[in-house]
Design goal:
There is one protein chain. By secondary structure, the chain is mainly α. The chain is built from 3 helices and no strands. The N and C termini lie far apart (about 50 Å).
């Protein structure tokens, strides 16, 4: 079982990766994968790869944190 420090390091790594992806892609799609089989996810990943897309599956709280970090400093009009 992974220790607390390993889990934190993994999460920080994922946050950095997502932060970078949110900055480099023009479009981001958020979806709920409840009751989606692994074969369907594999097919989606394969299709996205053909169009130079990326599929990242992450916890909601991490996604919310990245969105908050990315939108800080953006002036509302």
């Amino acid at each position: 079982m992974a220790g607390g420090a390993e889990v934190r390091a993994k999460k920080l790594n994922q946050i950095e990766k997502l932060y970078e992806l949110f900055g480099t892609h023009k479009q981001i799609i958020l979806a709920n994968f409840t009751n989606v089989g692994s074969s369907q996810i594999q097919q989606i990943r394969k299709t996205l790869r053909a169009y130079n897309g990326t599929l990242v599956i992450a916890k909601n709280t991490l996604i919310k944190r990245i969105i908050k970090l990315r939108t800080e400093g953006i002036d509302e009009e």
